[in-house]
Amino acid sequence: MPGSFHGIGIANSALRNIQRALDVTGHNIANVNNRNYTRQTVDFGTEDPTTFFARGLQSLGSGVTITSVNRIRDLFLDGRRAGASADFGRMNSLAAGLQQLEGVLNEPGNNGVSAALNRFFDAFSGLSSNPSDPAARVEAQQAAKLLAQRVRGAAGDSSSVDAQLVSQTNAYAARVNDLSATIASLNDQIAEKTAAGASPNDLLDLRDSAFEELSGLVNAEAVRTETGGMRVFIGGFALVDEGGAHGIPTAFDAATGTFGSGANQVRVTGGRIGGTLEALQGVRRYRADLDAVADAIRDQVNTLHRTGVAPDGSTGLDLFSGTSAADFNLASEVAADPNRIAAGTSGVAGDGDLARAIAGLRDLPLPGLGGRTIEAFYTSVATRIGAETASAGDELETRRAVLDQIDAQKQSISGVSLDEEMANMLQLQRSYQAAARTLSQFDRMTEDLLGLLR
Amino acid sequence: MRISTGYQFGVQNDRISRTQTSLFEAQSRVTSGKRVATMSDDAATAGRGLTLRKAVSSAERYMANIEGANRDLKRTDSALDEANAILRRAYELAVKGSNGTADQTSRDGMVSEVEGLRKRLLDVANSKGANGQFLFAGRATDTKPFSLNDGAPVYHGDGGQVLVEAEAGETIAANVPGESLFGEAFAALKTIEDALRSGDATKLGEEGVAAAQSQMRRITQVRGEVGSRIQNLEAMSANHQRRIDDFTKAISDGEDVDLSQAITDYQAAELAYTAALQVTSRTLTMGLMDFLTG
């Protein structure tokens, strides 16, 4: 049986709940610039009705209540976004790494290894044609020195890129472990709140945003449990589960993309880590190719040069020293005195046969270089890196477009629209005004009643 | 589709940044003139560019080799011209000395002139090239090839050819070994001198004249051969030059921008950027709030 002041109760419930709904709108507006925010809406429901007698038992409404504060989000999109984000992160790191490698290459132009190769072979052709010209001999020495410098420089620069990619990988792996710890801790907080019956929307946002960042770093997959928890897997490796976070091991092998070893092994194929490891493979492959070029030049040239007799009478000397590209250098004897460069084998001043044979190496297919000439080999290496960099750049744009499109869909569903919130606000404001008017109407009626008694 | 505020701003920012990037790229293509600055700009073209650069670079080297060889061969030719003049003078002396009107006094005068000719011939036989190398020493270019021992020439050089790389794997000799050429020229002078000294007009008229003539013929023949080598080299050089021109053009065609195209692209990019800015400035200021009063 409703009391005399039942109407005041109804108006009161309206005022109170409309104000709460306005709070939710305010919260949405406040978070319009928060990228990780999911907009919230309010579901209104009626209070339990009361009954009264009038030609039988009648039901009478008791006002309004808020049944839930919803988080507007599409979990299916979240799943798609994780994959797209890992693909984008992978291409982003791969393209950036390959661009750095291309910078090391410094082709085409006059500043790369290929220009130094040309100058070297040309200088020996010049020496063969002018074996008694001191200037031709100095040019041969300087051209050999430049070639050694360029090869060494490229080896040094690619080592720096290598080291940088390794430390980047370590930093990303550390971040993955931070994020997995965050997710595990949020899992606990969310479970606690959920158990108390609340919907911890903002905590869910935090957890989703941690996972979004994680999915850009590594090919991670989130599985939501029935109790509201989130499990995260990288391949078959459980990064986060009910037992908490299990960090990925720190030691990694770039060639296979695996972290750790034995039973505790994670294979990373995507995300920034996956892309960085692929770039690292590219850098190491270039490094191996550069070593092959340095070895081929050193072996072939030295073998010939050792048979020569130099103007100062020295014989059996190497032209180049070192054991790889990193220490590829002009032999110290030859660096000290150009008259230790042999142009011929006879010791006669006009003999340029040896220098011509060295110049002729440029057109000789070499077994150490897959049966190609030194220049053809290096050109193919440069072309390969250029093509890989270009296709990584193109692929990156494709992946960016896919991710952008998913983000647009997500934004469309979950993003705050100020216009919409404004309209909501107006609606709530009007409702509040009407509820207040109802209250004052009851007040006046009550006043009239009390006036009768006076 | 529902447009959220963040999305609206994000898309517009993105649009501005994308059109700005294109504008910047178009601008740098116009200012650098390069379409292919790195391998990834166009890997196939850039790779071909590397191969073409090698061809240009070696052609330039072969041209320089040829130029050096021609310089030496031209010096050789003028030395041989000088040797020819010496032999012509010896021939004239032999003819004059064999004439019945010549007496021994005038022949003795001719003997001292022949001695002078021998000295001049020695200088010619020891001629040097541009790098200070002896032209007629064979490959022993740092050894003075001829000395005289009691009027008889002694050769210190060898019979080797100084080879110049004029094309890949193609060599041409840039020298003429002088042993027999100058040896026999000295011998001709000796024959004439001896006959002048002994007053043997018959020997002078027959052997002396014949020796001078045969050496002059030989030198002319060698000069002809040197001349044809120079011509061959010049033809090869012209061929290299043509290749350099062709390849340089091919590199430029592949790697440089077509300027009118680049400028048109730049204008298009500028238009797109301006449009993005205008659209953004109009839509960003629009919202329900602007239309609500109170």
Layout of strands and helices, then pairs:
The complex is a heterodimer of chains A (454) and B (294).
Chain A: H1 6-30, E1 40-46, E2 50-53, E3 57-60, E4 64-71, H2 75-105, H3 113-129, H4 134-195, H5 201-217, E5 220-224, E6 230-234, E7 237-241, E8 244-245, E9 252-253, E10 258-261, E11 264-267, H6 271-305, E12 320-321, E13 329-330, H7 332-336, H8 353-360, H9 374-414, H10 418-453
Antiparallel strand pairs in A: 1-4, 2-3, 5-6, 6-7, 7-8, 9-10, 10-11, 12-13
Helix pairs in contact in A: 1-10, 2-4, 2-5, 2-6, 2-9, 3-4, 3-8, 4-5, 4-6, 6-8, 6-9
Chain B: H1 5-32, H2 43-98, H3 104-125, E1 146-149, E2 152-155, E3 163-167, E4 170-173, H4 179-198, H5 201-255, H6 259-284, H7 288-291
Antiparallel strand pairs in B: 1-2, 3-4
Helix pairs in contact in B: 1-6, 2-3, 2-4, 2-5, 3-4, 4-5
Low-confidence stretches of chain B: none
Gyration radius from CA atoms of chain B, angstroms = 39 Å
* Biggest beta sheet summary of chain B: 2 strands, antiparallel
Query: pLDDT under 50 segments of chain A (min length 5)?
Result: none
SS class of chain B: mainly alpha
End-to-end gap of chain A: 27 Å
Strand proportion of chain B:
5-15%
Radius of gyration of chain A: 38 Å
Strand order of the largest sheet of chain A: 5-6-7-8
Q: Report on the biggest sheet of chain A.
A: 4 strands, antiparallel
Question: What is the CATH H-level superfamily of the largest domain in chain B?
Answer: f41 fragment of flagellin, N-terminal domain
Count of the separate structural domains of chain B: 2
Oligomer: heterodimer
- Helix count, DSSP H or I runs of 4 or more residues of chain A: 10
- The helix/strand series of chain B, from N terminus to C terminus, equals HHHEEEEHHHH
Query: What is the largest interface, and how many residues per chain?
Result: A-B, 69 and 60 residues
Number of domains of chain A: 2
Estimate percent helicity of chain B: over 70%
